[in-house]
């Protein structure tokens, strides 16, 4: 068994309003950073997984994203796996 | 002025307990994914910034991270900038 590290990004879909991101975009102006626009805030998740191969680790992480980490109605996800 | 896209990861520091990550690690077992361990959950932030150069965009995003996006006592951040 090999240990892999996964880095997962879960973001609100483009069509979905992101109120937290909107609020932060507004705060940038007050900080004197008006050139920053269109802030969107999602989750960054790291995890360790033991698997016999990178393909199996990939499939397991995909399953975890689909079933637990992302809400596919409102969010999309991407991830990368590397050997630990 | 050029438009740049920034991708920022804000994660709880290693020494800091991450209760949300711990809870998700526990849930993995119930999903039949016991091989997933040490889940840590932070924020993934994307934003657009107009700047005269990549160096300036870099400095502005660093300022935004320090002053607004990350709590440096409990969190650390990394980011990448690319031309839009």
UniProtKB/TrEMBL annotation, chains A, B:
Annotated catalysed reactions: N(2)-formyl-N(1)-(5-phospho-beta-D-ribosyl)glycinamide + L-glutamine + ATP + H2O = 2-formamido-N(1)-(5-O-phospho-beta-D-ribosyl)acetamidine + L-glutamate + ADP + phosphate + H(+)
Predominant location: cytoplasm
GO function terms (MF aspect): ATP binding; phosphoribosylformylglycinamidine synthase activity
Keywords in alphabetical order: ATP-binding, Cytoplasm, Ligase, Nucleotide-binding, Purine biosynthesis
Record's keyword annotation contains Ligase: yes
Domain of life: Bacteria
Metabolic or biological pathway, per its Swiss-Prot or TrEMBL entry: Purine metabolism; IMP biosynthesis via de novo pathway; 5-amino-1-(5-phospho-D-ribosyl)imidazole from N(2)-formyl-N(1)-(5-phospho-D-ribosyl)glycinamide: step 1/2
Gene3D superfamilies per the UniProt record, alphabetical: Phosphoribosylformylglycinamidine synthase subunit PurS
GO process annotations (BP): 'de novo' IMP biosynthetic process
GO annotations of cellular component type: cytoplasm
EC number(s) given by UniProt: 6.3.5.3
Subcellular location: Cytoplasm
Pfam families (alphabetical): PurS
Class in the EC hierarchy, top level: ligase
Family: Belongs to the PurS family.
Described function: Part of the phosphoribosylformylglycinamidine synthase complex involved in the purines biosynthetic pathway. Catalyzes the ATP-dependent conversion of formylglycinamide ribonucleotide (FGAR) and glutamine to yield formylglycinamidine ribonucleotide (FGAM) and glutamate. The FGAM synthase complex is composed of three subunits. PurQ produces an ammonia molecule by converting glutamine to glutamate. PurL transfers the ammonia molecule to FGAR to form FGAM in an ATP-dependent manner.
Quaternary state and interactors: Part of the FGAM synthase complex composed of 1 PurL, 1 PurQ and 2 PurS subunits.
UniProt protein name: Phosphoribosylformylglycinamidine synthase subunit PurS
Organism phylogeny: Bacteria, Pseudomonadati, Bacteroidota, Sphingobacteriia, Sphingobacteriales
């Amino acid at each position: 068994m090999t240990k892999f590290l996964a880095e997962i990004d879960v973001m609100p879909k483009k069509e979905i309003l992101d109120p937290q991101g909107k609020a932060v975009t507004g705060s940038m102006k007050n900080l004197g950073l008006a050139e920053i626009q269109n802030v969107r805030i999602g989750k960054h998740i790291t995890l360790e997984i033991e698997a016999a191969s990178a393909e199996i680790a990939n499939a397991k992480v995909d399953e975890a994203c689909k079933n637990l980490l992302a809400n596919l109605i409102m969010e999309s996800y991407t991830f990368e796996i590397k050997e630990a």
